[in-house]
What does this fold into?
Amino acid sequence: MSSTASGKNGTWRNWGGNVSARPARQVTPASVEELAGAVRRAREDGLRVKAIGTGHSFTSIAATDGVLIRPQLLTGIRTIDRASMTVTVEAGTPLNRLNAALAREGLSLTNMGDIMEQTVSGATSTGTHGTGRASGSIAAQIKALELVTADGSVLTCSEKENPEVFAAARIGLGALGVVTAITFAVEPLFLLTAREEPMPFERVLAEFDQLWAENEHFEFYWFPHTGNTNTKRNNRSAGPEQPVGQLAGWFEDEFLSNGVFQVAQWVGRAVPATVPAIAQISSRALSARTYTDIPYKVFTSPRRVRFVEMEYAVPRAALVETLREVKAMVDRSGLRVSFPVEVRTAPADDITLSTASGRDSAYIAVHMFRGTPYQAYFTAAERIFTAHEGRPHWGKVHTRDAEYFARVYPRFGEFTALRDRLDPDRLFQNDYLRRVLGA
It folds into this structure.
C-alpha cells in the first residue's frame, strides 16, 4: 500500500512505517483555487494545515491533526518553455512521471536523487538530492515557485519576483505555505555512462578527492562489518546507448538488490549474529558493470526493501575523517548493521535552509531495515555527525532542534523572520516544525 493511500479510520502513515497521523479532515483539491479555499476554511475552523507528498520522509514533517491536503489531483506539466529551457509542473506530480514526460519531449533535469516515487514538491521542500560535483539538489534547479500562503492568497516567486521568498521557499519545509507549482530548469536529453565497481574502503577514502574531482557524479556504499564498498561514477557520454540488459538488470537490480537483499534483512533481523557474515556476502554480490542510458534510468533505482534512514551533510573536507569515526564506532559497538552506508556530495548553493547552503557538502546516510531497533546506531552516528557541524536531511530521522540549527545555518534567522511574515499565526505549524524552527 502506498503511503498516499489512507489507512484504517482515516489514519495516514508514511512509507517507512514509523510516522502516523489522524487528521480531522482530508482534502484532495483539483485546482489551485480549491486548495486556496481549503486553506481559508481551515483557518476559519481553527485547524492547522499540512500538505503531504508520498510520505517518503522519515520525520513527522507532514503529520497533522488538522487538515491534510492530498496532492494526487494536482499533477502534470503546465508548460514547457523551450526558449528559456524551463518546465512548470503541478506540485503533486511524482518525479517518475515528470522524468518520463520530459524524456518524451527530449528534455531532462540536470541531476536527481536515487528514488523517484516522491512528488516534486515533497522532494524539493525537504531538500532531496543526488550526488554531483557541480550540480546540486533538485531544489537548486528551481527557477520559480507558486505557493498558497496562510491568508489563502497565491504568491509567485523567482530570482526577480519576491526574491527573499524564493531564497527560502525552494526548501521551505512546508512552513511558508503550500507549494502548488514549480518551474524547473531543464536541458536537452543527454546520456550518462555509469561505472559501478567494488573498491576497498581504504582505497576509496585515500582517493576520495580524486574520485570526486574526476567524475561529474560520484557516490559509494560502504558495507559495515566489512572493508568493502561499491562505487558508482556517472559521467556524460556521447553514446551510443547501452542500457543494462533486461535479464542482467532483473538479476542485479531486482533479484540481488531487492529480492535476496530483502531475505538477508529478514534473516539479520531474526538472528542479528548472522549480520557480519551476511554483510561480507552482500558486499561481494554485485560485480562491476558499465552501462549508458538517459539520466533518470541511470540516477534512479527501485527501492523495494523498506528501511528507516538518517542522513547528515558535513563539510566536504570533513568527510573522510567523519566516515573513519563512523566505522570505528560500528567496529567497537557490538551493533549489527545490515544496511550499507551511502556517501554522496553536493556543491554549495544559495538556498537558506539547504543542507548545502553556503558550503560544499558530503552526505553520509545510515539506514536500518524497517522493524529493526535503530535508535542506538542512529544516536551514536548522530553524535559523530553533529561534532562536525553536520546538518540533517529535513526528511530523515534526527533529534536536532532550532537552537542547533541557528548554530549550523548562518541564515537561519532569515528563514524564521520570513515565516513570521508569511505565517504569523502558524497555520502551517506542526510538532516537527515547532521543534526545528522554534515556536
Observations:
- Residues 326 and 332 are 10 Å apart (CA to CA).
- The longest strand covers residues 191-200.
- The longest helix spans residues 246-270.
- DSSP finds 14 helices and 20 strands in the chain.
